[in-house]
Design brief:
single chain, 254 residues, alpha/beta, Rossmann fold, 6 helices, 40% helix
Length: 254
């Protein structure tokens, strides 16, 4: 199948749940054909079936973003199926236990860096190449950052380091993509309620040593931010956006 001239193709990684699923649903509602990438096939296929029931078009491609061969297979499938890619939402990410860094198992460090940094780079690299080759040339890469790209929480060295790295990758894409009409954005997210973040409503370690529950926002607000950026013409860009629960500790954190 080849994309028609009016069809926009989007890729969402980590699309099986949480923010990725919400963003995929939003892009589908906006008329994108959406490629759904994630490690678990079942929730991806469920989303494909849901889209089909609404007359929307989605394709599930189970993918491990930490594996170069798996990422290459994902982008080979996109190019062979649609011939182009207009938007990428690099959303897949993991965290590590909140413990003093000398107690952190090294495999947890490598897991976070492999997923949140190398995974983002591998997908951005492959997207950059496809967007550079395709005609018309260009596209948009949106990276999932975090308010931890600005201010850390206690005992979050791996996650904080990974999101600072994402900021560097985003700026590098924005600079290097100018010659090819490729733009990059980063959405720094704070306290979006998902299956993984629900625990924060029961208490999170604060910088002053106390534990406190924190306000949360619905993940659809993040999805709407992705939709806004994805809808812009390539002549305009949101380089950085922070979307957060209004009363969470960030400004003046600690």
């Amino acid at each position: 199948m080849t994309a028609t001239s009016c069809t926009k193709i989007a890729l969402v990684t980590g699309a099986g749940s949480g923010i990725g699923r919400a963003a995929a649903l939003g892009l589908l509602a906006d008329g994108f054909t959406v490629v759904l990438a994630g490690r678990r096939a079942e929730p991806l296929q469920a989303l494909v079936d849901q889209a089909a029931s609404r007359g929307q078009r989605a394709l599930a491609v189970p993918t491990d973003v930490t594996d170069p061969a798996s990422v290459q297979a994902l982008f080979d499938t996109i190019e062979a199926t649609y011939g182009r890619l207009d938007v990428v939402f690099n959303n897949a990410g993991v965290n590590a236990p909140a413990v003093p860094m000398d107690e952190l198992p090294l495999e947890k460090w490598f897991s976070v860096i492999d997923t949140n940094v190398t995974g983002v780079f591998l997908c951005a690299r492959a997207a950059f190449g496809l967007m550079r080759r395709q005609s018309p040339q260009g596209g948009r890469i949106i990276n999932n950052g975090s308010i931890s790209a600005h201010t850390p929480r206690p005992f979050t060295a791996p996650y904080t380091a990974s999101k600072h790295a994402v900021s560097g990758i985003t700026k590098a894409i924005a600079l290097d993509g100018r010659a090819f009409n490729i733009v990059a954005s980063q959405i720094d997210i704070g306290n979006a309620l998902t299956e993984l973040s629900e625990r924060m409503t029961r208490g999170v370690l604060q910088a002053n040593g106390t534990t406190a529950s924190e306000p949360m926002m619905d993940a659809t607000h993040v999805a709407n931010a992705v939709r806004h950026i994805a809808a812009l013409p390539l002549q305009a860009n949101v380089l950085n956006m922070t979307v957060m629960a209004s009363h969470m500790p960030f400004v003046g954190r600690g």
